[in-house]
Model the fold of this input.
Amino acid sequence: VASAMLIKPERTADFEFVLNKLKEALAKSEKPERKQQAAGWKVFKSSQAGPNNTAVYIFRIDPIIKGAEYDITMLISEVFPVEVQEIFQKYKDAFAGRAVTELNQFMMMQ
Done:
């Protein structure tokens, strides 16, 4: 699965703060599936602007851990319950849109 997050250009620092908190939450979690999720979760930032000059971040998750939660705010709240409201506000203020695409491997060149 690939998910594109469109972020307001003036809010990329806030969004990247949220992503760093997510990474930290996955690393510090007591739940073993969080380490598995982190291992398959990659984030890319496009060098080209998206619609309305947004910054485009692509989340590529492979493999998906069956039954695991991927909601960013929920994952952060597991480890940072006190800070989660402040973090969620940064996330909400930065968010401009989203698109999800199911990717199917087409070909391997080797």
